[in-house]
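Supplementary Methods, section 5.1.

A reviewer requested that the exact input to the structure prediction be made available. We therefore reproduce it here, unchanged from the version used in the analyses.
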Amino acid sequence: MENIIKIEKQSEYYPKKLLDLKDPPKCLWTVGNLELLKQTQDFPTLAVVGTRRYSEYGKIVVRKIVQELSSYFIIVSGMALGIDALSHKICIENNGKTIAVLGSGVDEESIYPRENIRLAKEILEKQGLIISELEPGTKATKFTFPKRNRIIAGLSDGVLVIEAREKSGTIITANFAKEIKRKVFAVPGSVFSVNSKGTNNLIKEGAILTSGAQDILNSFGIKSSYNKIIDNLSEKERTLLKFIENGCDIDELVEKLNLSVPEILKLITQLETKNLIDQVGDKYYPKI
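The structure derived from this sequence is encoded token-by-token as follows.
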């Protein structure tokens, strides 16, 4: 592990966003890339949190959303088992920036859970950052996690909840976010799943229903690389893309667009080059 650095409130590295909290931490103990703390002031920051016991559905959702958002946000989470750890892991796998906020000291002997020591080292190797308001040597207790959760909310411009039980630390984080006027996003789930009770309740209470990364990008007014490509398409390319929404073969496109086969094939090649369509059997489908 790297050297531990203490950041006081008056430091240029102390995140001003934390001052929105009723009781901002007096200082932060940090290990890793300190520049990320300064970048939270100007670079969009998203907390991704959820249950420790995620389902296969939760795993698929967090992988899809975080890998798409890692280019646009600093990803913040609590390095707990489950969704938190998975969010950090997917972020660094996609060369993103991530900050882990602990409910223990940041020294290797205190890091909790112990199963994530390897993940902590990977975060540091990938120029990430690990922080805590607790002094090195402080062990995690059931009382330190709610305090940790308020820092996760405070550091972030928005909090994304992917699978959460009705009463959980994840919901505590979302409530802290609401208190300080941060955006709260929630991924809906089955009404029969205990892991979806918390997220479905958040949506009822006004959280932004989130079915993909685009919902979050739209909320922050960020144009994805996909949208930028769409904006630059020709009228014929746009029309073809619209018609293949539910799948079309060459003959159907010739009939619908009133174009020759060579013209259709040329448009298809252009859209394939831009990575916008896929061929499955005889039919073409949009990738998104």
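The two ends are 41 Å apart (CA to CA). These observations are discussed further in the main text.
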